[in-house]
Write a structure and sequence with these properties.
Structural class: alpha/beta
CATH architecture of one domain: Sandwich
Strand order of the largest sheet: 8-15-11-7-10-9
Distance between the termini: 93 Å
Shape: globular
Oligomer: single chain
């Protein structure tokens, strides 16, 4: 096929593979090429600049009987072909050439109008939209307010007309007044629109007068018609932020002191946008005011409000729990003896949250300290039995996972140095954000003393042998002996993990992650920070580095795992808990202020003052033959604390030092079993078989939930989907694996419920750090509580 095109008013480079006639010499070459192409039945495209060459070539092909198609090519026609677009009549050749549209690098997809192609190419996919609505308003405004956009409009003036036509089309297609108003502002005063939408986004939840202080009454009425979800992620205008903050600060100044109850607090919380760090500070001030008793549920709602707030990290959100007035954990009876599982349950679910609150608020509790010392007594007594148990001892943890590791193609073991249960939630949150899903969690007892040099070699080797080798050599031995000779890679920092080439053969990668221990030993207040914030940053980097490795790995997600373990926990000591004395012996025995334990040769143990031994235990390793006697402090007794008094220490036998978390994460979701649930104590009408409810009364609902999974679940919130109703309060219980729990909710059914025939309730729950939803339905009828009196039918 041979195509000849006369190109008019066009100087740009031609398509690759196209022959061009600009001179008589070019004409001669093309004639030879025509004959050759015709004889070989090939294809050829020829573009001709001058009209006489075009006419000559037509005469030549007619005389030589070479079949050709002849056409005129203008810049408009070439543009339509190159961009795969329909060209509007107003786009003439002069515009195409003057603005160098044919020189633009355009991604050609299916055929569209010229305006859409131009807008999408320079401004983004949002301009493919056929209409403007609450779904894409934020994106459109965001695009149009980017700094580089004005450069596009200057470089290609035709873009302005394309934009105007698009916005007018959106305006015509909508029957909503707010959309038409937005379209007008997009064309006439974009800066004002962005500023006022920001004010509406920030002040929309507050009393109306706050918005009216910063915009006219007429504009306020228009803004209030814009759906709040349309601007929930709108980038904020700097000047508007300052104006909104002035109003917000005045609001809190006027009303903050009047907040005296939880219901008052929730009225304020409903107002805030959750988009400003200053709002977070003001809400935190209310929580710290001690005007009402703060619950964990209150903190959850504050965290939900501010979870997407710029500058408010997960670590800062976690610090809010210091304001929760926690109930004292349950206490064992004087003659009651708890076993390992009971101690773990108590420590994980009751003691750790309470202990963290104690250290944040400097609250000494003599009764709890007595239980902690009873734990230390029990642990030291049962030490040998516990560490012979494969499912209890931290030393045997990797032995417990041995079969998994041998079968997997890629195993990443993260040894997080000093990871107390107190901060486990921060690491789990970081892993979830990096799209890792927790498949298994375990709680193990660490070896004594709870210190890196003593415990980490044991955990790595899985035996009680004392190794003179370094960690890498221990890992290599372990891989050969227990993990089928798989390749083992030892890494000592995050940089090495990020730079690691993905192994081509089955491998075990172990990262020895030391920074958390350094953070916990430091005084973070000197940096105007918190332990939560510092660890949040570390764990986020750790999880992202792990994700980077797995993103580059080509195998199936089920063939790999991340194992998170630690060598010991850590504890903070309150002033009232310190039991110490001045002594040269003490200074000699405790040279490292970060460690609570000490050791001496057995021959020298008799020289230690008895008043030191009375603060703890004489301990000799039962599984290791060594010539040392250790001093292990009892409970929170601390012979020599850190100089600053701020950091964490370890080496003792407190619960938070020796009971530690461990977990298995995968890139793939676990297959959790669906929860089962049923309503309790519903009033069923015998004739209709429906549950009967009165409207405009607070009706208590009870739901029994069955958890068939091995993991504990947490009910986060309850929503009533049908009929129209308000939930005045509900319980949010934890339900253990293979256990049962009851959710209680107080419901107020509104008038519109009359005539509805179904009750649909939904509860959101968390398992393994991820949220899921369960719905429960029942046939129902709704009656007015006001009746004309009783009849005999009521007695049947």
């Amino acid at each position: 096929m041979i195509e000849v095109s006369h190109i008019r008013n066009y100087d740009q480079p031609l398509h690759e593979g196209t022959m061009l006639i600009e001179s008589d010499a070019d004409y001669v070459k093309v004639c030879h090429a025509l004959r050759e192409s015709f004889s070989q039945k090939g294809s050829l495209k020829i573009w001709v600049r001058q009209r006489w060459h075009f006419d000559w070539l037509r005469n030549f092909t007619e005389q030589t009987n070479i079949p050709c198609t002849f056409s005129e090519k203008t810049p408009r026609i070439i543009l339509a072909d190159k961009w795969n677009v329909t060209i509007p009549e107003w786009l003439d050749d002069e515009i195409v050439t003057d603005q160098n549209l044919l020189g633009m690098d355009i991604e050609v997809e299916y055929q569209v109008g010229f305006g859409d192609r131009m807008l999408v190419s320079l401004l983004g996919q949002a301009f493919y939209a056929e209409k403007l609505d609450s779904v894409n308003l934020s994106e459109i405004v965001t695009v149009m307010t980017r700094p580089e956009v004005s450069g596009h409009f200057n470089a290609y003036p035709v873009l302005s007309r394309c934009f105007e036509e698009k916005v007018h089309a959106w305006e015509r297609r909508s029957n909503q007044a707010w959309v038409k108003r937005v379209c007008s502002d997009l064309l006439n005063d974009l800066e004002k629109l962005w500023k006022e939408l920001t004010l509406w986004s920030l002040l929309g939840g507050y009393p109306k007068k706050l918005l009216e202080y910063v915009v006219t009454a007429e504009r306020a009425l228009f803004l209030q018609s814009v759906p709040s979800d349309a601007i929930s992620d709108l980038p904020l205008h700097r000047v508007a932020i300052e104006q909104a903050l002035t109003q917000i600060e005045m609001f809190f100044k006027d009303l903050g002191s009047s907040v005296k109850s939880r219901s008052d607090f929730y009225e304020i919380l409903k107002c805030v946008s959750g988009r400003l760090g200053k709002e977070f500070q003001l809400i935190t001030g209310l929580l710290a005011s001690n005007r009402f008793e703060v619950s964990r549920e209150d903190i959850f709602h504050v965290q939900e409000k501010f979870k997407s707030c710029p500058g408010i990290s997960g670590g800062r959100l976690a610090t809010l729990y210091q304001f929760v007035t926690l109930k004292r954990p349950s206490l064992p009876e004087e003659d009651e003896s708890w076993e390992a599982d009971k101690w773990i349950s108590w420590v994980v679910n009751e003691y750790i949250p309470y202990r963290h609150w104690q250290t944040q608020n400097g609250h000494y509790d003599a009764k709890i300290e007595d239980v902690v010392q009873r734990f230390s007594d029990w642990y030291m007594k049962e030490y040998t039995t516990i560490h012979q148990d494969r499912e209890k001892s931290l030393v045997h943890l990797l032995n417990y996972w041995e079969d998994k590791i041998k079968k997997e193609v890629l195993s990443l073991i993260l040894i997080v140095d000093s990871l107390p249960l107190t901060f486990w939630g921060l690491l789990q949150e970081a892993m979830a954000k990096a799209r890792f899903h927790r498949h298994e969690i375990a709680y193990r007892f660490g070896p004594i003393p709870s210190q890196t040099d003593a415990s980490k070699p044991l955990i790595l080797s899985g035996t009680w042998e004392r190794y003179d080798k370094g960690y890498e050599a221990i890992l290599q031995d372990r891989a050969q002996k227990d993990w089928g000779g798989k390749r083992a890679i030892y890494l000592s920092n995050l940089k090495a993990l990020s730079a690691l080439q993905v192994p081509e053969e089955p491998a075990i990668v172990l990262l020895n992650f030391l920074p958390p221990d350094e953070v916990l030993h430091s005084d973070v207040e000197l940096k105007d920070s918190t332990y939560e914030e510092e660890l949040h940053r570390l764990f986020a980097r750790l999880a992202d580095s792990a994700k980077h490795l797995f993103d580059r790995w080509p195998g199936e997600s089920q063939e790999c795992s991340v194992y998170v373990i630690t060598d010991h926990g850590a504890t903070r000591i309150l002033e009232e808990e310190k039991a110490s004395f001045d002594s040269k012996v003490v200074n000699k025995l405790f040279p490292d202020e970060r460690h609570r334990f000490s050791y001496v040769n057995k021959a020298e143990a008799g020289n230690i003052p008895e008043n030191l031994w009375s603060l703890g235990y004489r301990f000799s390793q039962p599984f290791v033959d060594e010539d040392y006697v250790y001093f292990i402090p009892r409970g929170h007794n601390t012979v020599k604390g850190p100089r600053s008094g701020k950091g964490y220490v370890h080496g003792g036998a407190s619960p938070e030092e020796v009971i530690v978390p461990a977990a298995v994460f995968k890139p793939a979701r676990p297959a959790w079993k669906e929860l089962a649930a049923r309503f309790l104590n519903l009033r069923i009408d015998r004739k209709t078989g429906k549950a009967s409810f009165y409207i405009q009364r607070v009706i208590p609902l009870q739901i029994e939930v069955q958890n068939p999974n091995s993991e504990t679940i947490h009910i986060l919130r309850v929503d009533l989907l049908s009929p129209d109703a308000d939930i005045k309060g509900c319980t949010t219980p934890y339900i253990a694996g293979s256990g049962y729990g009851t959710v209680e909710a107080d419901c107020y059914f509104n008038k519109s419920a009359i005539g509805e025939e179904e009750l649909i309730i939904q509860f959101t729950y968390e398992i393994s750090g991820e949220e899921y939803i369960k719905e429960l339905k029942a046939a129902a009828e709704y009656k007015s509580a006001v009746t004309g009196g009783f009849t005999l039918k009521d007695l049947k």
